[in-house]
Amino acid sequence: MSDDLWVYSDKVKNHFTNPKNILEVDEKEYDYDGKGQVGSPACGDMMVVYIKVENQKIKDFKWKTFGCASAIASTSVLSEMVTRNGGMSLEKAYEITPEQIIENLEGLPANKIHCSVLGDKALRAAIDDYFKKQEKKNPYKDEDVEIVCECFNISKEDIRMEVLEGATNFSILQARTKIGTQCGKCIDKTKKLLKEYVDKYYKEKIYNPEKD
């Protein structure tokens, strides 16, 4: 693998070497309102996010990870994004995308963009947990999604996220999701969507949403 595939922006390097808002105490000592965990140490990447909420805004964001430089930098910059200016609203925070995180990092190597997915997924899980603890329904969770594979209830967004997590060909996508393995009616549409997302995210060695 050539060295230029691993080129990071100065902002990524800064957040990796000086990460912001890491949880430096045991979680039992941190009075959080919501916790979200994604990934697994066995797979090499795991992210845990803790949030404090006040007046429906994220007043504090702490995190821990077992991950690479991109995962660390992505979550560090995410922690700044949601806590600046008095805290981001839960609604806006729930809608944060990997593309927004990557843009705030001034780009990521295309082969590392899957790392930016960890933070936003864990953040959404933390917000879900917050509402669950409040015994309320999360009003920001989109229940009206476009389903591509009805057999396995796989949405268009599920496919996009799988591509962001490294599923760059149909064989990988199918192995992960079983999409198209039952009736097969969704295969053509799935392959079209897959190509669309791969072309978008992996067309250059360095991906930056500002270029789209």
UniProtKB/TrEMBL annotation:
Keywords: Iron, Iron-sulfur, Metal-binding. It comes from the Bacteria. Residues 8-136 form the NIF system FeS cluster assembly NifU N-terminal domain. The keyword Iron-sulfur applies. Residues 147-196 form the BFD-like [2Fe-2S]-binding domain. One of its GO terms (molecular function) is iron-sulfur cluster binding. GO terms for biological process: iron-sulfur cluster assembly. Signal peptide: none annotated. PANTHER family: IRON-SULFUR CLUSTER ASSEMBLY ENZYME NIFU HOMOLOG. This is Iron-sulfur cluster assembly scaffold protein.
